[in-house]
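Suppose you are handed only these lines of text.
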Amino acid sequence: MSKTFEIAVFHGDGIGPEIMAPTLDLLRGLSSGYDFRFTDCPAGAASYLDCGSDLPEASLDTARRADAILLSALGDPAVRYPDGTEMTPQIDIRIALDLYAGVRPVRIVPGMRSPLNLPDGKVVDFVLIRESTEGLFHTQGKGHVEADMAEETLRLTRRTTTKVCDFAFRLARERKASGSQGRVTSVDKANVFRAFAFWRDIFDGVGANYPDLTADHAYVDAMALWFVLRPWDWDVMVTENMFGDILSDLGAGLMGGLGMAPSADIGDDHAVFQPCHGSAPDIAGRGIANPFAMILSAGMMLDWLGRRHDMPAMIADAARVQAAVDACLAAGETTGDLGGPLDTRGAGAAVMARL
Ligand code: ATP
Ligand code: MG
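From them, the structure of the protein bound to adenosine-5'-triphosphate can be written out as follows.
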């Protein structure tokens, strides 16, 4: 009997709907032993102009009830709140659904426009876990500003720090089963901030529950250097919100830009899968956007759902989607941003053909 998964779909703004369309086609085409029911969730700039809300309650409700959430890109720098600030519904979703673990895989495969020249035999394949609900983002727009002084605070809670570290160790264990090092590196600044000594203590405590894995630490400034000089060294990293924000863009840079970077934001009960890039209003409406980051994010959704519901066929399909994108990259079957001749639909069709 086939299992049907409810998926909340945020088509979004700009190139969002363009990259979502081939992604949904691809998911509809897979479905061996499972099916999807996709429900559209208006949100973002178009929704704000349409109904006065960039995250309507009904969309958030649908997301809350869904088995998983697919999100392309929300927002448009030209559409702002009356006070001039940009809308960030994707961050509101993260907070509302307590999606504490931001998962940012960094893989360099042939055909990507990586600025790195990797030595022969070196493979870059690591995952950065960014705590996504507190840390240096916890004051979010409510920082304290006086005429001659401004102040923001860093908040780390034992509850969330424990959860996100545990998430990182579980992921490292899964990855070890398919040949990775089985190593988790905490990225912090414990030499300067007491709050990070607190983080480190919790990380070490959680790591003690995983004697089969290696746990170590690095300072964030050193890690920025090592991302560039020794990116093949790492397996799973876990870090605070702002450090993770910065390092994940650096990771996307190693892959040649945001067009190739997928992501997931995962909590205990919900998960959002979305590309790292924004709505790219500069190229919207032309059908030329690169759909690979969106498709790879959908692949991460298959992996997450498959593990959660114990469906090996789905986990295998996740690996097939990634392999199909890799094959397209290697063959130059890509959109113009990667130097290829295809448009968005063509690139989506190329991935399906490889599947
Ligand atoms: P946000 O604030 O929403 O994160 P951003 O300012 O970081 O947005 P993006 O919308 O990610 O900007 O776009 C940055 C640049 O990358 C733009 O020139 C855009 O055209 C390009 N870009 C982003 N995503 C894609 C994609 N999928 N395919 C091709 N080009 C893209
Ligand atoms: Mg951005």
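What can we learn from it? The chain has a mean pLDDT of 95. The two ends are 23 Å apart (CA to CA).
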